[in-house]
């Protein structure tokens, strides 16, 4: 799967289809890795360092 994130998982910025591998807002990597944790809302794979779910934009830190 090479699905690209629609939101920056770090700053929550909405990303365009043409966005590169890094957020143009905060510089965070947008690449989806094979390992991580599951979003509490959509069960999508996210990184435990992510603040926002890259799939549903749920604010993951509020679950900690
Ligand atoms: Zn960002
Ligand atoms: Zn989610």
TrEMBL record:
<protein>
    <recommendedName>
        <fullName>DZANK-type domain-containing protein</fullName>
    </recommendedName>
</protein>
<dbReference type="InterPro" id="IPR025874">
    <property type="entry name" value="DZR"/>
</dbReference>
<dbReference type="Pfam" id="PF12773">
    <property type="entry name" value="DZR"/>
</dbReference>
<feature type="domain" description="DZANK-type">
    <location>
        <begin position="8"/>
        <end position="56"/>
    </location>
</feature>
